[in-house]
Amino acid sequence: MTTTATPAGTVTLVGAGPGDAGLLTLRGLRALERADVIVADRLGARSVLAQLEAEGAVIDAEVIDVGKLPGHHRVPQDAINELLVELAQAGRDVVRLKGGDPFVFGRGREEQLFCEAAGVRVEVVPGVTSAVSVPAVAGIPLTHRGVAASFSVVSAHDQIEPGGPLSTSGADHTLVLLMGVSTLAHSAHVLAAGARGIDCPVAIIEDGYGTGERVTTGTLGTIAHLAAARQVRSPAVVVIGEVVRLSPYAASLEPASADAGDAAPPPASPPARRRPRSRLAAALDAGLAVDTGLIRAIDVHSSPSPSRKVSLS
């Protein structure tokens, strides 16, 4: 009796971007359409899938939610690694759908190395990182001629150390903090004591591309107070540097002064950003899908039939 070996499956690491399906790459979309199973994160990934579904796309794949919540990992990373290998070795084509870019604080390379060590072939499809895309929705370029020629992206889970390279760089070097809400007060204090000073402008963009998108601006001397007053929550991207003054939300910022004074009240923050209502938003209101980050989906030339996949070829 002849037995046939199960053909090997593959794993494709796909960056879902910041949560807007319009920012999913075509290669990423094709991978989702081919997948037998999708192992999805919470931030960015699930909202992209919901948007595609709301627009009529058919993704014929089992979806396994391994999303992480702040302070709580629903599925430990080691278990995710093992799951990817198990699924691929069972002959299934697996998409590991990760928010943002898999290689920017996404542990994507860890997953790739683990799979390859087990003999599983891995393809990486880059995504649009929130470090760049979310400041853009607030009109903040990370570099700008004559203002800033470089930027750094930092995970602020770990506190910024006084005297380190981040605290000694000036406001002409843009600093982007990811996962930095819980350590914001400490970060602002350390950076204000360094070369940037208390007048260095700061912007916090909450839920970029999501229904709760909101921009709060201030300075290193005021941002912790403003964030507490407005009850800023994750997910949020913090941008620190002179480029923040280029944002239309920074109109309330005063010009830099030699002495801000401890008694001066913090400047009023601009109102929350409001996006126009979209076809997708109406669909969500009707109960077709519920998730964060659901604003718009991929534009198609005509409304697709629910019985067929969206094709952009």
Provide key terms for this protein.
313 residues; alpha/beta; 5-stranded parallel β-sheet
Q: Which series of helices and strands comes N to C?
A: EHEHEEEHEHEHEHEHEEHEH
Radius of gyration: 22 Å
Are there runs of 5+ residues with pLDDT below 50, and where?
Answer: 256-313
Provide the helix percentage: 25-40%
The profile of the biggest β sheet is: 5 strands, parallel
The averaged pLDDT comes out at: 82
What does this molecule look like?
- This protein is of the alpha/beta class.
- Helices cover 26% and strands 18% of the residues.
- It contains 9 helices and 12 strands.
- The strands form 3 sheets. It has a 5-stranded parallel beta sheet, sandwiched between helices. A 5-stranded mixed beta sheet has the order 8-9-12-10-11, with helices on both faces.
- The longest helix has 13 residues, at 42-54.
- The N and C termini lie far apart (45 Å).
- Residues 256-313 have low confidence and may be disordered.
